[in-house]
Amino acid sequence: MPSSASRIILCPGQGAQFVGMGRAWHDRSPEARAIFERAERLLGDRLGAPLSQLCFNGDNSTGIQRLNNTDISQPAIYVTSVACWAGLLAQWKSGANGAVAEAGVLAAAGLSLGEYTALHLAGTFTFEEGLELVALRGRAMQDAADAVKLADGSPESGMVALIGADAAQAAQVCEEARGTDVLVPANFNAPGQIVISGHMAACKRAVEVASRLGLRAAELPVAGAFHSPIMRPAADRLKAALTRTPIQAPHCPVMSNVTGKPYPSGEAGDADTVADTIRGGLVAQLTSPVLWEQGCRHLTGHTKTGAPADPEFHELAPGKTLAGLMRRIDKATKVETHDEPNE
Questions:
Q1: Starting at the edge strand that comes first in sequence, how are the strands of the sheet with 193-199 ordered?
Q2: Is 197 buried (19+), middle (13-18) or exposed (0-12) by CB count in 10 A?
Q3: Phi-psi region of 340 (alpha: psi -120 to 50; beta: other; left: phi over 0)
Q4: Could you confirm whether 227 is annotated as catalytic?
Q5: What digits encode the pLDDT tens for the residues 125-166?
Q6: Which residue in 50, 69, 261, 267 is deepest, having the highest Cβ count within 10 Å?
Q7: How far apart, in whole angstroms, are the C-alpha atoms of residue 253 and residue 263?
């Protein structure tokens, strides 16, 4: 039964993971459980433990929490989000075929890794094709970060959150702290929340520069300098994989993190051009800043009219990060989160 609601779907990225994510959907939704089962059949023992165990319990086999590792968290978040989507479709009584249209989805957006979820929901590639890409992406990004570790094994690159900074101030911090190292803006998440990325020495200098400029700065607990030139080796590996992956025109607008605007649809050009644009955007995303705030402003500006029929915004599991960012971007836009199925 087609839904009468119009919806915009937001898909979380790396950092939203937590032990226990997806368990409620797995246990209470047959449709969500089937997604976890499909993922585990595809991944086999590649992650060192079943994906559901890593999501629900952490890695109990070794006593080490590996869910925060880039090569684990990325496929884990992708699968949890898609499982949540499958469960929501069942709740909304939308058909499996033409799910985006039947669920009344006007557009989809995903933060960094979440862009893959959004593209899958829009029919750009299959669940399995997306999972293969995400698994490779996570492994390639982890390898690129490991390639610049110090002799003692500590990260030689990282990221710093600048609280209260605007784009000009973030650029100034990078310029003054960069020296001969890499240091660039990496995430424009929301007003007053910008993340910069680069070599660790430059990140530490950036904290000092930010303090001098009256800004708060905090080093982030990440594996490396994501969305910076340091990720070039990962981008090259991802490009090769994307070349082999069939790409279809999305069935609804999907926001690009690189441009802050929707990817072209099938109506906007021939299929090969659309596919090449999407491939290029996903590759560029690894070394370019994520324009999340700009993309959200595009969505709210192009879909909201103030009428009762304005679209609903829904954030897929795991977490509530994107709802929090939207409160800073546009307080009038409410985002419903879905860590668990509705009773």
A1: 183-190, 193-199, 157-163, 216-219
A2: buried
A3: beta
A4: yes
A5: 999 999 999 999 999 999 999 998 877 777 799 999 999 999
A6: 69
A7: 7
- The yes-or-no answer on residue 112 being catalytic is yes
Please, what are the domains in the chain?
7-145+231-338 (3.40.366.10), 152-224 (3.30.70.250)
Please give the model's pTM, rounded to 2 decimal places.
0.94
* 259-265 mean pLDDT: 93
Percent of the chain with pLDDT over 90: 83
Mean confidence (pLDDT) of the chain: 92
In this structure, what DSSP letter does residue 69 have?
S
Alpha helical stretches, state H, the chain? 23-28, 30-43, 51-57, 70-91, 99-102, 114-121, 127-146, 167-178, 200-212, 232-243, 271-285, 292-303, 321-329
CA-CA distances (angstroms) from residue 210 to 169, 193, 204, 225, 270?
A: 9, 13, 10, 18, 46
How far is the C-alpha of 117 from the C-alpha of 132, rounded, in Å?
12
Question: pLDDT, tens digit, for every residue of 83-119?
Answer: 999 999 999 986 666 688 889 999 999 999 999 999 9
Determine contact, residues 274/306, Cβ cutoff 8 Å: no
Q: Which of 112, 157, 228, 288 is catalytic?
A: 112
Strands 183-190, 157-163: parallel, antiparallel or unpaired by DSSP? unpaired
Q: Give the Cα-Cα-Cα angle 135, 136, 141 (nearest 5 degrees).
A: 105
User: Using an 8 Å Cβ cutoff, are 104 and 1 in contact?
Assistant: no
Q: Which of 26, 120, 199, 227 is catalytic?
A: 227
What is residue 327's three-state secondary structure?
Answer: helix
Nearest Cα to Cα of residue 118 among 253, 277, 264: 253
